[in-house]
Amino acid sequence: MQIMKITERIDYLIELADKALATEHTNKYGDKFISEEVFNEFRSSSLSFIKNVYGMDHPYFNEFERDTKNPDSYETRQGKGILKAIKQEIDDGWIYSFKGLVSAEIFSDFLEMAEYLLNENYKDSAAVMIGSVLEEHLRQLCIKNEIPITQIKDSKEVPLKVDLLNSELVKADVYNKLDQKSVTSWLDLRNKAAHGKYTEYLKEQVELMYHAVTDFIVRNP
Question: pLDDT tens-digit profile of 130-179?
């Protein structure tokens, strides 16, 4: 199962939601319902997809399971909204977690996938993947060391930028300033790849990044 197939799958599930909504009908009491058969296909297929990609503990799975219990238009739209949020994460390249990748049987983990991409000469995708691994690892290190990873802005909780997390981890003596500089350079390479600046780095640099990030994670579990 490849990334493109994941994208195709989420598009199919959203289409399935629209298919279910197209069957909307009103009973003799004025209540609106949709085809139970199509709804059940939409719900079960979506739950399976979300579980495989994110795991059963993820908010997306819990929200979808909670909000799509009945075959009616409102709950189908609720489910479709969740799928559209997932699609946005897919399109932005932020969907993956180690657990999700293992569950989906794509690769045993992010770094194995990055190594595969490098071997296939997809240096740009590999750079984004390695950077995503690194960013998630920094967040987990913060959680482990009781360092906040979010802040309240305009009455909403928003994630802190990864550069700030990097600085806070050094302040907490989780790792040293040399590692901090390395992390900054790796994230910079990832950002170049994510923003299409493919000529500003070489495959060899991504390979070095792969080995260095792997070592960093081992040293800072």
Answer: 998 898 889 888 888 888 888 888 777 788 899 999 999 999 999 999 99
User: pLDDT confidence of 5, banded at 50, 70, 90?
Assistant: low
Sign of the dihedral defined by the CA atoms of residues 190, 194, 195, 198, in that order: positive
Report the predicted TM-score, pTM, of the whole model to 2 decimal places: 0.52
Give yes or no for a contact between 190 and 127, defined as CB atoms under 8 angstroms apart. Answer: yes
DSSP bridge partners of 52: none
**Would you put residue 146 in left (φ > 0), alpha (ψ -120 to 50) or beta?**
left
Please, what sign has the CA dihedral across residues 59, 187, 134, 116? positive
Neighbouring-strand partners of residue 153: 156
Structural domain spans, the chain: 3-100, 109-219
Number of CB atoms found within 10 A of residue 210's CB: 22
